[in-house]
Structures are given as structure tokens and as C-alpha cells.
Amino acid sequence: MSFSQAVFNGTFHIYLSCTSDGSQPKQFLSLRPYGLNFPSVLLKSTQQESSQSHRPSRRSSSITAQQSAGAQREVVPVMPDDVPEIEEYIQYLRGIQQPGEAAKAMWSRPTVRRKTKIVCTIGPSTNTQEMIWKLAEVGMNVARLNMSHGDHASHQKVIDLVKEYNSQHKDNVIAIMLDTKGPEVRSGDLPQPITLKSGQEFTFTIQRGVGTTDSVSVNYDDFVNDVEVGDMLLVDGGMMSLIVKSKTEDSVKCEVVDGGELKSRRHLNVRGKSATLPSITEKDWDDIKFGVDNKVDFYAVSFVKDAAVVHELKNYLKDCGADIHVIVKIESADSIPNLHSIITAADGAMVARGDLGAELPIEEVPLLQEKIIRMCRSMGKAVIVATNMLESMIMHPTPTRAEVSDIAIAVREGADSVMLSGETAHGKFPLKAVKVMHTVAMRTEATLLGAQTPHNLGQVFKNHMSEMFAFHATMMSNTLGTSIVVFTRTGFMAILLSHYRPSGTVFAFTNEKRVQQRLALYQGVCPIYMEFSDDAEETFSDALALLQKQGMVREGEEVALVQSGRQPIWRSPSSHNIQVGTYMIALPKNLAVSMTVYPHCIGFSMCLIEWWDPKRVHRTARGSISSPTSELVRSAVSIAFSSPLSLSPASPLTTPPLQRPPWPL
Ligand SMILES: Nc1ncnc2c1ncn2[C@@H]1O[C@H](COP(=O)(O)OP(=O)(O)OP(=O)(O)O)[C@@H](O)[C@H]1O
Ligand SMILES: CC(=O)C(=O)O
User: What is the DSSP secondary structure assignment for residue 211, as one 8-state letter?
Assistant: First the structure.
């Protein structure tokens, strides 16, 4: 890898390139950020001249910093004397790691301005066209189909409606998540609900069709073998509880501890134990095939206990040629010792707090939630927090304060998505519940600093260069208060950027509809479908025109363009590229200049200077770099500097990419 070019281009460009064979450079170039003591030249403006007043154009005048023969090559280490300055700089960076003016004003539509996504379970309250449209308009990003309920015909209807919505609303697509029933243990049907009182005897039997006032069937034949005398049985995650007193060949006799009303087909858990059933049952395989046929975007796989089941499902999907991502539901006691391997094998995880809090002591749930979110974040995987988030809104139009806090905590902890279950499936106020979730998430996000770099992110991806770019693109866009525009065919780079949690929106342009839908789950990503043309500049212009037309970026607003990721689109395979640019409607030259309004922005000064007196550009660029502008210089140098260091085989990347510039300021 070598630092080939740092280009301040009307705005700001950085180019990095790898040696084509991917080998390490023998020497690393060190550049000092101050004084620009590397060769600096003025390039010609590449501004697109246009007489059409509605085509966005990129302001573009350039300075290059380029390694040349004889350029300074020594590495400049951090000296003890430099530390106070570095500390000061870090403080400064912290200060600017907040959305700038541009980011604040970015989106007017609720579904886009919010970063944390909302998953809604679709059920009897919401399975009509009208309600799906309304849910989407108030903020649903993912529609969840719970295969524990309903049949294929009813789920097919919902899938068709969501697809119809997506085909009509290209800038706000809804992903579809199929949630498997899994090896759920449920009580059988009852002619009518029965009331259980504390202290009374009650029997669960594996005989079929039993439903009396003192006995009911269980749908799982090994139930008698799995439970022991003294075990605590929980109904619906603890709404009622019973202690096992004795067993026969086919029955488990219990004493009711906490009574209540037992209805048909209720969830049964044994505290501290998972059923010995396989995670994917016969019914689940049938449902999974239904998902393949309907090209759903995600499976949420219930009661995953180990990574083997994820591999089995992924192999099946590969054999089918199905591009469906796998979210593991962490809800089984047995999954906890295997968390790392399970999440590694999956594309994401759901903290399924309902069953989790039944199989494990309830006080473990918040701790596990935090742990699972942290693990997913550090591994670059999506993470969803689910269950009881606005439970009281099933019956009431306003949430409890504790529920509001619960959403805020999930947002702060960094969940990609928060999920509604009964609230939208069979609640009385599904739209209000989504609005509350939306408002609370937005309010909480407004208090968060950007770029909360996930712990250990660098260990995950083989494509390390992309990771470095995602990190630095995040730093740069936060510094300037811009959103990020990324072009992606697989979604990889958009997901990577999402995991660095930039302050601005990640506008992910993709030419794959499935990728667009999938990205709807990811924090901060606004997925947009667009055909890519062979010409990069033309595609950029089209993308920016689209953003401007939709009101997603304003005239004169800066955005960061990122070209990196596993599959190069227009760049050469060895190069990666970030540009930060001001995009504006082309106007007569002397007007266009005055539209770039960032006083701290290099794009502004460059355009202005080039405009007025090209001869002064070089001189002024050197002499007038103000603090935030030199920030950009540092970012550029930081990429050049930190990438080879982190890639060195002698020091494998065991820590997150460098967050501070390793030189004196
Ligand atoms: N497709 C559906 N058809 C009918 N009712 C549904 C459907 N989906 C959900 N529901 C109703 O909404 C309730 C809440 O949905 P949820 O997805 O939380 O299911 P659950 O059975 O409570 O829990 P789990 O998520 O563990 O399966 C369900 O108990 C059920 O009554
Ligand atoms: C969502 C789910 O399945 C649970 O919380 O148990």
C-alpha cells in the first residue's frame, strides 16, 4: 500500500491506492500536517460547466499532496512534548464529532431522519393495505411475520402488500423479516380460558386434546423428560408460574405459584432450561422454504443454541441460491455460552427478551442486552432489541415512562433496530406506538455523539482497507457535518459505514433492489435504488440530483462520496476514494461561489480563491488554512499514515483503527 495522492478538490478528495499485488510497502511515508511540507500543486478546476440551471454540479478546484522522489520519508513519532497538543486536538475533535448544520437540516421525512430503525410485527391489527401503508408512513422500516401465528395464506397477503408498497415508494422501502416459530413449547387449546389460583394443583400432559379446569395438553412429547421436580414453569414469560411437584410417564403435576387466566396455546418455559428440541423444526423448514419462494429479506431464527444451526441454514440457502440474511434470536439459556460463535456465523442478532427473560433470571436481561449489542457492534453485525418495548400501548394510547426509557437505552446502546410485537400485531394503537418509538429514538439520537467506534471492529472484516475507509469517511463527514453518499452493489460498504455510526445519514445507492430492502434494517442507512451508468461522474451527478430533488440534501450542502468496499464499481480494484464536496445547482460562476456558505470549509476557500485569482490559490491555500481546514489535511494524512501501520503483518489489527493522529500538531 502506498499513499499516492491526497487531493483537495473543490472540496476535498483523498485517494489511497494499494499496490496491485496487495503487498506491504517497504517504507511508510510520514507527512507532517502543518506547513504542508509536502509538494503542493494547484490542479485545474474540474467544475462541470453547465448552462442548465437544474443539474447539480460539483465545485472542484484542487490541491494535490503527492509523494514524489526525494520527499521526506522519515516517520515522525509522537514526542512527550507533543502530548498536550494532542490532548487539545482530541478535545477539539470530540467537539466536532457532532452533526453539523448540514446534518441537522438534512431530512424532513420522519422515516429518514431517524437513524434507529423500527421493526413492526404485522398481525390482525395491521395486516391490511391501509395499515401497512400507514405504518410505513409513520416509520416502519421492517415488517416482521411471526410464523407462530397465522398461516401461509395470511403471511402471503402481507408479503404481497409490502412488495406493492415498495414498488410504489422507491425512496422508502420496507424489508420483510420472517420469524420462525422454533421449538416453542405451548399449552394446548382450551374451550375457554381457565382461572388458576395460587396453591392449587394443575397438570400438564403430553396426551393430545386435553383441556379441562385442572389439566391441559402440551405440544412437546419430551416435556416430561426435560423437566425435573422443583423446576419452575413459566406461562407467557412469567405472567403465571407453577412449580413441578411430581411426574408420571405422560404428565407433570404442578402447584400454581402465581395464578392468573390460562388461555389457549400459551408459551411455556422452564426457568434456566432450554427444550432439547432442534432449533429448526419440520414446520420451520416448511416456513423457511416459503420465505425462499417469496424472497424475504431476513430470517429471524428462534431458539438458536449453537452456530451449527446457522451454518445448516446458510448452507441450505446457498444451495437454493437464496440471498436471505440470517438474524439469530438470542432467547435460549443454552445460547449464552455460545454467543460469540453464534453471532459470528449469523448476519445479525435479536435480543428476544421475552423468552430470554423466561429461560434466564429476569435481572440478567438488561445485562445480556448490553452485552449482545456490544458484541454485534464490535463484529459488524446488525442487532435488534425486541419485546415489551411499548407493551402498555397494546391497550393504552400512551406509554409508561419506563417503556420510553427502555427505547432510549436501546438507542443509546447502539441497536440498529427496535421492535414492536403485540403493539402492532394485535394492539389497539399500532400507529401511535410507532410514532412514540420514532419520536423517542429521534430525541435520544439527537443527544448522541457520532462516530462511537465499535470496540474491536477492525478484527472482523478481511477487507481491511474498506474498514479503514469507513472509519475515515465517518471522521471526515462528522468533521464537516455532512451526510455520506456510498455506491454499493452488495450493501457491504453501507453496512460498514453504518457500524461506525456517522453523525449524518448514509445514503446508500445500490442497483440491487434486494440490497436496498435489506439495508432498511441498518442504523443510519437510507437505501436508494438507482441504475448505475458506466460513467462514474454521471452516476454521482444523478445520485446527487435525486437527493436534491427529494429534499434530502440542500443546495450548497456538502456530502462525502465514498468509493470503497469489496467490489469496485468505477474505481480500480486497488484504489479507494473519499471525496467531500459541495453540490449545487450550476449558476453563473460569480453567483455559484457565494452559495457555498461554510466559513470553515476548504471547499469554500478554494472555490473562492480560484475564482478570484487563480495565481493566489497556491499561496493562500498554504497560508490561510484555518484550524478546521487543517483538520482535513490531518484526516488525509491520517489515512496515509495509519493504514499501512495497521496492516503491518507484524502488528495484526487487534485494536480499532487509529482514532487519533499519530503526530504532533
Ligand atoms: N400473523 C398473526 N396472526 C394472528 N395473530 C398474530 C399474528 N402475529 C402476531 N399475532 C398476535 O400478536 C401477539 C403478539 O405477537 P408476537 O409476535 O409477540 O407473538 P408471541 O407469540 O407473543 O411471541 P413470540 O414473539 O415469542 O412468538 C401474538 O401473541 C398473537 O396473539
Ligand atoms: C421476540 C421473541 O421471540 C421473544 O422476545 O421471545
Answer: B
